[in-house]
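Re: the request from the purification team.
They wanted to know what the chain is likely to look like in 3D before they choose a buffer screen. I agreed to run a prediction and write the result into the notebook, where they can find it.
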Amino acid sequence: MKTLKLLTYSALTVLLISCGGANTPASKLFEIEVKGEKAKFHQNETVDITVKNKKNKTINAITYSIDGKKINLQDNKLVLNTEKVGNKTVTAEISYDDTVVEVSKKITVFAGTSPSIYTYEILNEYPHNPNYFTQGLEFYRDTLYESTGKRGKSVLVKLDYKTGTIFKEHKLKGTQFGEGITILNNKIYHLTWQSNIGFVYNTDTFKEIDQFTYGKSKEGWGFCNDGEKLYKSDGSEKIWTLNPNTLIEEDAIEVYTNSKKLIKINELEYVNGKIYANTWQSGQDVAVIIDPSSGVVEGIINFNGLKDKVTKTDNVDVLNGIAYNPKTKTFFVTGKNWDKMFEVNIIKK
């Protein structure tokens, strides 16, 4: 009798699963379909979206959301008016019979428009220490601060940008590879590359105030701030938003143009509501202009030709280092092991 009961229960279980019962995975019953299954979707594009009913269930209602935010569809048309570009999850909450299930689909949303192109005009040339593997560059109270990389050679300096005279210097430990800096409320926030540690110093004395470790971002690259929040790049397509008091990563954007994902986003500078960023190993000496609320690349600055103006040595490396001087309202750019720094105007073509 026990054997018969066991067989009856097992048969019932198989019957429930095969008929689409409670134990059947939602993906076996339903699937989100986007018309055309395009490789690239763009911000504000309208796409046709439906739910494929694999087992012909009687559907009572479907509710859609993108990254947890509910959206309304008209005639099965979805408008991709997402605030941010990048990887998104489209979810359909499906009510059928007495059951509610969810199925999801991953899509990537690119910028809706192509970036504007910019060039530059050189205003002045200043000396730059050719031993500096520049990682961070920032003005604070009309004084230039610079951080440099390479283990055993990483320093943080405060200097006269016109002459290169050093006012103050702090050397990192030999195991640490210095990266980006940003300055807020008389505090210098300083990243290291792969040590998973950052430092906070007093701007005037360089005395260490605090240390912090990274959260989801595994490396330290570029750093900037908007007067309230800190922005940190980590070598991926992401730029993280940090609370300057807790130094916790609270949010992130993903950086995309209308056609590609941008990775290896390096030195950062925040100017008039936009993030200006160097890109490492992009093949050209360019910087990009990023909307910090969406991740959209709004502009590309072509700095090609600047590197030709520095003294050629075996150590000369890529463009890296962009700082805005609020007093002169001009940008200052340099590169790794360059012997010159250039004051420029950025001009839209």
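For the purification team: The CA atoms of residues 216 and 249 lie 8 Å apart.
Please add any questions underneath this entry.
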